[in-house]
C-alpha cells in the first residue's frame, strides 16, 4: 500500500538543519512517485534532551521507534555539554546494536562538476562502497578501568569478533560485489600487527571468498589502504572493514570526492527484523551549527538510500539524479564545495530538480 512510517530524529547541531531538507525532498518525491510518508518527529537522542532528562532517550525508546518502517536520523553530539561517548553510546550506537543494524553501507562517489581534491580525477574514477561492520569489533563494551587514579592505572577495551558477526558482514559485502559490474572486493586488515582478531578476519574472508568464485578479491593492511584511497581511488569497488577501519575509510573516501558533507549512509538490518537507520556520514559540526550553511546533500542522499530500502527505487534514483544536477551548478552548492548557497537553498534546489 506504499505508506511508510518514518521515525524522524534530527539530534544535535547541523542535524537540526539538514534533516528538514531531507524531509522536504522526501515529501516532494512522495508526491511525484505516488507513495505516502507518515513522519513521526522525536526530540530524543539529542544533547538537549539529555540536559532536560539526564539521559539521551526515554526508557521506552525501543517501543516508540521500533515499529516504524525506517529511522531518518541527523547527527548526535554536543561535546560542550555531554561527553561524546555518553551521548553516542546512549543513542546512535545503541540503535545500531539493539536494532541489529550490522551493515553500515557508505557509498563514495565523485559527482560531475564537483572539484576533486585529487588532481586529475574525474567522475567514474571514484565510485565505490565502504561496507562497515556496525555492531561489534573495536566498538565493544568489554573492558574496564583498574586502579583508577593511581600510578598503576590500567584501561582495557577488547575487540570482539564473533563468527556470526564477521561472516554476516562479509556475506553482505561479497553479495554486493557480485552484483556490481567490476565484481571486486577489497578487505581492510591489519593482521601483521593485530595478531589475533585480524588474522581471524582474514581467515573468514578467505573462507567466504570460496563461495564467490566470480568475485575478484584482495586485501590491504589499513595503513597502506588509506594511502591507496588517495593515490589510487580507481582501484576500489567494494571495500569491507571492521567497525573502526570502516569508520575511518568512510570519512577518507568522501574527503577524496570533495567534501564529507555529501556522504550518505544506511545502517541496515538486512533481515528486516528491526527498522534500519539512514543518516549522513558526518556529525553535528558544532563549528558551523546554527548558521544555516551546512551541506544538506549527505542527508538528502541518505533519504534516497532509505527509499531504496523501502522499495521505492525509482524515487531513490530520481533523488540521486537531482543531487547530481544541483552539484553540477556552483551557485547551488554550499560553502564546503566552494559555493555560496545556504542549506535551505540547496535543499529546495534538489526538491525542485526532481524529475
Ligand atoms: P563532523 O563531521 O561533525 O565535522 C567535521 C568537519 O566537517 C567540521 O569542520 C564540520 O564543519 C564539517 N562538516 C561536517 N558536515 C558538514 C556539512 N554537512 N556541511 C559542511 N561542513 C560539514 O565531525 P566532528 O567535528 O569530529 O564531530 C562533531 C560532533 O559530531 C561530535 O560530537 C562527534 O562525536 C559527532 N559525530 C556524530 C556523528 C553521527 O551522529 N553519526 C558522526 C560523526 C561525528
Ligand atoms: C559515524 C560516527 C560514529 C561512529 C561516532 C559518532 C560514534 O563517526 O557514524 O561514522 O564512530 O560510528
Ligand atoms: Mn565516523
Automatic annotation (TrEMBL):
Pathway where this protein functions: Carbohydrate acid metabolism; tartrate degradation; D-glycerate from L-tartrate: step 1/1; Carbohydrate acid metabolism; tartrate degradation; 2-hydroxy-3-oxosuccinate from L-tartrate: step 1/1; Carbohydrate acid metabolism; tartrate degradation; 2-hydroxy-3-oxosuccinate from meso-tartrate: step 1/1
Signal peptide boundaries: none
Stored SUPFAM superfamilies: Isocitrate/Isopropylmalate dehydrogenase-like
Sorted UniProt keywords: Manganese, Metal-binding, NAD, Oxidoreductase
Transmembrane segments: none
SMART domains, A to Z: Iso_dh
Record-listed E.C. numbers: 1.1.1.83, 1.1.1.93, 4.1.1.73
Top-level taxon of the source organism: Bacteria
Named cofactor requirement(s): K(+); Mn(2+); Mg(2+)
Keyword Translocase in record: no
The keyword Cytoplasm is assigned to this record: no
InterPro entries: ICDH/IPMDH, IsoCit/isopropylmalate_DH_CS, IsoPropMal-DH-like_dom, TTC_DH
GO molecular function, one term: NAD binding
PANTHER family the record matches: D-MALATE DEHYDROGENASE [DECARBOXYLATING] (PTHR43275:SF1)
Stated role: Has multiple catalytic activities. Apart from catalyzing the oxidation of (+)-tartrate to oxaloglycolate, also converts meso-tartrate to D-glycerate and catalyzes the oxidative decarboxylation of D-malate to pyruvate.
Family according to the record: Belongs to the isocitrate and isopropylmalate dehydrogenases family.
Protein name: D-malate dehydrogenase [decarboxylating]
Species for this entry: Aliidongia dinghuensis
Amino acid at each position: 500500500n506504499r505508506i511508510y512510517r518514518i521515525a524522524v530524529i534530527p539530534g544535535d547541531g547541523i542535524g537540526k538543519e539538514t534533516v528538514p531538507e531531507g524531509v522536504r525532498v522526501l515529501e516532494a518525491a512522495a508526491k511525484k512517485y505516488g507513495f505516502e510518508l507518515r513522519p513521526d518527529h522525536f526530540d530524543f537522542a539529542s544533547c538537549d534532551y539529555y540536559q532536560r532528562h539526564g539521559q539521551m532517550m526515554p526508557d521506552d525508546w525501543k517501543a516508540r521507534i521500533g515499529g516504524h518502517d525506517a529511522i531518518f536520523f541527523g547527527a548526535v553530539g554536543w561535546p560542550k555539554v555531554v561527553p561524546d561517548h555518553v551521548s553516542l553510546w546512549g543513542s546512535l550506537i545503541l540503535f545500531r546494536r539493539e536494532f541489529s543494524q550490522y551493515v553500515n553501507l557508505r557509498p563514495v562517489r565523485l559527482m560531475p562538476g564537483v572539484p576533486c581534491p585529487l588532481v586529475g580525477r574525474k567522475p567514474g574514477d571514484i565510485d565505490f562502497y565502504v561496507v562497515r561492520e556496525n555492531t561489534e569489533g573495536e566498538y565493544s563494551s568489554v573492558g574496564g578501568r583498574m586502579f583508577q587514579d593511581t600510578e598503576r592505572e590500567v584501561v582495557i577495551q577488547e575487540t570482539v569478533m564473533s563468527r556470526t558477526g564477521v561472516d554476516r558482514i562479509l556475506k553482505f559485502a561479497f553479495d554486493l560485489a557480485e552484483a556490481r559490474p567490476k565484481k571486486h572486493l577489497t578487505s581492510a586488515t591489519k593482521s601483521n600487527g593485530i595478531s589475533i582478531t585480524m588474522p581471524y578476519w582474514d581467515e573468514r574472508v578467505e573462507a567466504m571468498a570460496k563461495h564467490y568464485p566470480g568475485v575478484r578479491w584482495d586485501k590491504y593492511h589499513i595503513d597502506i589502504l588509506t594511502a591507496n584511497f588517495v593515490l589510487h581511488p580507481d582501484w576500489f569497488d567494494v571495500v569491507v572493514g571492521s567497525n573502526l577501519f570502516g569508520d575511518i575509510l568512510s570519512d577518507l573516501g568522501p574527503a577524496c570526492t570533495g567534501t564529507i558533507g555529501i556522504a550518505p549512509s544506511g545502517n541496515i538490518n538486512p533481515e528486516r527484523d528491526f527498522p534500519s537507520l539512514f543518516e549522513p556520514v558526518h556529525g553535528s559540526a558544532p563549528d558551523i551549527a546554527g548558521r544555516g550553511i551546512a551541506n544538506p546533500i549527505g542527508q538528502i542522499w541518505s533519504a534516497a538510500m532509505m527509499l531504496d530500502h523501502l522499495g521505492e527505487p525509482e524515487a531513490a534514483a530520481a533523488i540521486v539524479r537531482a543531487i547530481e544536477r544541483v552539484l553540477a551548478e556552483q551557485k547551488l552548492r554550499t560553502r564546503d564545495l566552494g559555493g555560496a548557497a545556504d542549506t535551505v537553498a540547496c535543499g529546495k534546489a534538489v526538491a525542485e530538480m526532481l524529475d
